[in-house]
């Protein structure tokens, strides 16, 4: 009896507190940031429920069922408060902020101005060019001084993002930020950051290749070809041929950052001893052999190993060696999220490039009168839909059979060239379009574009969802002349990254693939 009375004494609140007072506290007077406000509201409801429960006998059946429910409510409230206070995703801002970054040519001062749509206020801040740090180190900038409606006093931004804004201003590029996103018309996400990484990669990256003799029964599969690669899948052979004569090769495995698995999927497919049905068994046996002869695969589970494949049969080649699919770096042309073998971020997209000799074509002498051009077989529902909607259009030229003019002339006389998903998401049409100065229009959902880690594809291509095929003409006609010229100029600047050379040239396709591998290497070298 004594304990019951003491417990009831602890809960003997004044039950006359009106809910309007609680609402007034959290909704009108305090006006805290969103997480705090929501927490106070839920806590107020919890407190009021306890007060109402106190009016009944705590040992009654009604109260016995009420108390656990209230405790669960309180626990849930605390969890929600923690999530809200540590995550940006659940924060809802009632206003939209637009920020403009400019640098004065006379003083070198950085001017940041913001306008908030909620109350039309505008705030400006001028600061010296102290943000000219191209190292990519993340800093802290007090955004409350420019009036940004953030629940935290500070928000992280990266220095090279500010560098981009300053560089774009200097070059006459777009410097507007809408809702916190910079509009970048440069070919690279951050040129200085890439060049610094590229130089470090060129100096220090080392690759060990598992050695095989010329009299090996499968030398045609494991060694570089002794001729100039050709055809749609030449990228696979070009990479291995160029790698073996490059300065990235090391004979000392202890100095290697990565280990190259030199088998060729395309040549396995055409070898009568293997064929398509025998590829999986060949690779399983190959991994078993190197794991028994060498310690390098076992010590990392294959995480510091990679292979290169461009043929479409490569997407199922690792089905009997799951550790390759899950651990090794796969540099493949079939870089689609629909392919179960492809693991985004771990794997890399290899561009499918048709080999070309000689200098780039002179683009200035061609007049581009056709709005859109596409030529290809009807081997996917996406292409069938494209033909059904635009097959008889006068401005969108869609061909599925024999062309009246040569393929190259069609590319040179068109403003936009379509890359439409066929049986596979990858084709050589993107590199074809870039080579002939035609702006690529990519119609393929969930596709990792080549070198997307460093190249800003939005600056030299147009990406259209497959569902928007009926809107294709409206989308492309909505691109102004100035915007098209920016895209076209960036196409010319980007096409050198989609070209193979023997020996390789700086920043060509080979070096760009090596940079992709550099980004995916382990930061710690495994010794064993």
TrEMBL record:
Q: Does the keyword tRNA processing apply?
A: no
Q: Where are the transmembrane segments?
A: 63-83
Q: Which InterPro entries match?
A: Exostosin (IPR004263), Exostosin_GT47 (IPR040911)
Main localisation: Golgi
Topological category with respect to the lipid bilayer: Single-pass type II membrane protein
| Record keyword Metal-binding present | no
Q: Which domain of life is it from?
A: Eukaryota
Using the record's annotation, list all stretches that form the Exostosin GT47 domain. 202-478
The protein's UniProt keywords, in alphabetical order, are: Glycosyltransferase, Golgi apparatus, Membrane, Signal-anchor, Transferase, Transmembrane, Transmembrane helix
Q: Where in the cell is it found?
A: Golgi apparatus membrane
Family assignment? Belongs to the glycosyltransferase 47 family.
Fetch the PANTHER family from UniProt.
EXOSTOSIN GT47 DOMAIN-CONTAINING PROTEIN, EXOSTOSIN HEPARAN SULFATE GLYCOSYLTRANSFERASE -RELATED
Its recorded name reads Probable glycosyltransferase At3g07620
**What organism does the UniProt record list as the source?**
Coffea arabica (Arabian coffee)
